[in-house]
Design goal:
450 residues; alpha+beta; two-stranded antiparallel ribbon
Length: 450
């Protein structure tokens, strides 16, 4: 504390009396006009105040979601099946279909890490149902309400489609603009990247940490924010492309991503051997590994099977192979072998989640995610402190923000503890709302109110 950590930078030479002048070294960093810096800082502050609460919630829940596999094991501590027995996948799917005969879509995902389990998820008018299976294919309902809630909070804020993902996408765009405007409004930020001054006032210390963490994690911050914005606004972008390029035909826009279609035929038909179909798909990619099997309209002649095969040697998550109800190949995607756009879209999924280098990479994502969460929280705190120092205090807003930044993590812990008996969504949002009411009605002294 109280020390200045810095690295030396070249200083312009100064001519001494009686000594011939030498060429003055030019500054390394170009001088940015002060009016431009002020405008960037003003925009930076305005966007931060407008989207601060949502950005903070998305960043915090995303950081926690990095360890979703471990959280699920804590919530439902069954032994992970790192490898499954031959026929286990077929038995698991058959058992789930016997329990849920009227589903419209089914996904079976074998374990790809030591902390994952064979899971089968179904979708129908009631929503999603999930099951976990042991190494032999015996299934049991998956009960991980808190883990599922945190992931849903990060992706959609638990709001109905498409509004939740749209709001998350807009907050991602706002965060990306904050990152860029923050760099533009602080022309010395890179020069002072390793200059940490912690001997000033509380506001200056928080500003130092805010600026340093912003720069140190800049590649990570830009990557996850850009990819998150892409996913959140994907539907809006697709609609815009359809309107501008394909005369409103959204099917043509989604075709490269969704693959060939199969006409619906409600007549009953048994599922093919899913493991055999998966083996045929995996054989198409050297070093390929089964990621998941999807079945649309299972148990009918109009079924469509999609098999995603991951390619560990490449950034795009994998290639999708499509089959009809009889197991006949009908096409494939080009996420790993197609154009740059297809590969970039698939690679963005991997980059955003951090599921490409095992537990060490996910832990690193957790560290940088925590830094981004602090940056998003401290930015609003600094702005409110500046307003107070200029004689424009906002005591109610300041109390609300402090209750939000400290209360959301506390209420999440409470939600995790109560999720065994109560639904996480009303516990979390009810707790956050109650805390906001309490901090506004609680009596406060004059010094605290300032």
């Amino acid at each position: 504390m109280g020390q200045v950590l810095k690295i030396p930078f070249p200083q312009p030479s100064v001519a001494k009396p009686g000594v011939a002048k030498t060429a003055v070294a030019k500054p390394i960093w170009p001088k940015v006009p002060s009016r431009f810096t002020a405008a960037a800082l003003s925009g930076h502050s305005a966007v931060g105040l407008a989207f601060g609460a949502v950005i903070y919630l998305v960043c915090l829940s995303g950081t926690i979601s990095v360890l979703v596999d471990e959280m699920k094991l804590v919530e439902q501590p069954t032994t992970p099946a790192s490898s499954i027995q031959p026929g286990a996948l077929n038995r698991a799917v058959a058992a789930v279909l016997a329990r849920e005969p009227r589903i419209s879509v089914l996904y079976a995902m074998p374990p790809s890490t030591p902390r994952q389990r064979l899971t089968v998820s179904t979708f129908d008018a009631r929503g999603e149902q999930a099951f976990i299976a042991d190494a032999d294919g015996a299934v049991t309902p998956q009960r991980t309400p808190f883990s599922d809630f945190v992931v849903d909070l990060h992706m959609t804020l638990t709001a109905p489609a498409p509004w939740g993902s749209l709001l998350v996408g807009l907050s991602g765009a706002a965060l990306l603009s904050l990152i860029l405007s923050g760099v533009l409004s602080h022309p010395r930020v890179f020069r002072d990247a390793f200059r940490l001054r912690l001997n000033g006032s509380e506001r200056l210390r928080e500003a130092e940490l805010h600026n340093r963490l912003s720069v140190w994690g800049l590649p990570f911050h830009v990557t996850v924010t850009l990819t998150g914005t892409l996913f959140g606004l994907a539907n809006l972008v697709m609609l815009a492309i359809a309107a501008l390029v394909f005369h409103g035909d959204t099917a043509r826009v989604y075709a490269p991503l969704s693959g060939p279609t199969v006409a619906a035929d409600p007549r009953p038909a048994p599922l093919p051997d899913l493991e055999a179909v998966a083996s045929r798909a995996v054989a198409n990619l050297p070093q390929g590994r089964l990621y998941y099997i999807g079945v649309e309209r299972p148990g009918t002649r109009g079924s469509r099977l999609s098999v995603e095969v991951s390619d560990p040697g490449r950034l795009p998550r994998g290639e999708d192979f499509y089959f009809d109800a009889s197991g006949k190949p009908i096409g494939r995607s080009r996420f790993t072998t197609g154009g740059i756009g297809m590969q970039a879209y698939s690679g963005a999924v991997v980059l955003h989640s951090g599921f490409f280098g095992g537990l060490p990479v996910r832990l690193l994502y957790g560290v940088f995610g925590a830094a981004l969460t602090f940056v998003s929280a401290s930015g609003v705190t600094i702005r409110l402190a500046r307003r107070r120092d200029r004689g424009q205090p906002s005591p109610r807003l300041r109390r609300a923000w402090l209750a939000w930044t400290w209360g959301v993590p506390a209420v999440l812990i409470l939600t995790a503890a109560a999720s065994r008996w109560l639904l996480p969504q009303p516990v979390f949002f009810g707790g956050v709302l109650l805390l906001q009411v309490l901090v506004q009605i609680a009596p406060r002294g004059r010094a605290q109110a300032a």
